Amino acid sequence: FFAITDALPDWVQQRLWVALIIVAGGIGPRWAARTIGMTPAAATLAGLIYQCSPYLAPYLARTSAMLLPWAIAGWLFGASIRATLTSAPRWIAVMALLIATAGGVNTTAIAMVSWLPIAVFFVAYRDRKISGQRFSGLAVATTGSAIVMSAWWVASAVIGARFGPDLLGFSETVRDVSSTSTGLEVFRGAGYWLNY
Question: What pTM value is reported for the model?
Fold first, then answer.
């Protein structure tokens, strides 16, 4: 695959990369919707709605890797549901691999989707579909495996923060990040600071 894409012009490679992210981002929610029993048509509509999210717009060009956590959210949701339905540990492993795949790009972005499994487990516990012991076991196993699979980028972030320059203090000050988030800009979907 890489030998084929390496021969392609950069602009074609970039479009294939973005298409892959968008397709993965739409198929995940469709699969999760089928997992909870939605009809194929309703599940496809759910995937398309998620896939057409305005969240994509600011990231499609130069920061498309930031979409990886967005793309795995539906997959995490579906794998979490499957984990509550079976005692097989494979769904914990699937979630850990998803976190490893999307981790390391942006701490905030991965943190925004990492809570999904715990929320699914809690709802299953609240609805008496799993026991308290099963909820605790799933939560600990998922959190532990996510931490292990994230160790590679967490270690480099800690080392960089401790011994490297203060990049975020220079590039992403609170003033810079929040100055474009006025009510009107957010309403029209243009409040993302990096575009300015």
Answer: 0.82
The C-alpha atoms of residue 80 and residue 147 are separated, in whole angstroms, by 16
Q: Tokens for 10, please give them.
A: 């950069």
pLDDT, tens digit (0-9, with 9 covering 90-100), for 149-173: 989 888 888 888 888 887 767 777 7
Contact 64, 21 (CB under 8 A): yes
| 47 class by beta-carbon count within 10 Å (0-12 exposed, 13-18 middle, 19+ buried) | buried
Quick one: which of 69, 19, 67, 71 has its CA closest to 50?
Answer: 71
Q: For 111-136, how does the pLDDT look when each residue is reduced to its tens digit (9 = 90+)?
A: 888 899 999 999 999 999 999 999 99
How far, in Å, CA of 52 to CA of 75, rounded? 17
Q: Residue 118 and residue 137: Cα distance in Å, rounded? A: 11
Please give the Cα distance from 153 to 160 (Å, whole number). Answer: 10
Q: Which amino acid is at 142?
A: T
Pick the closest to residue 72 from 36, 39, 109 (CA basis). 109
Provide the b/e sequence for 93-119 (b: ≥16 CB within 10 Å).
ebbbebbbbbbbbeeebbeebbebbee
Q: For residue 163, which amino acid is it? A: F
pLDDT, one tens digit per residue, over 9-50 is 888 888 888 999 999 999 999 999 999 999 999 999 999 999
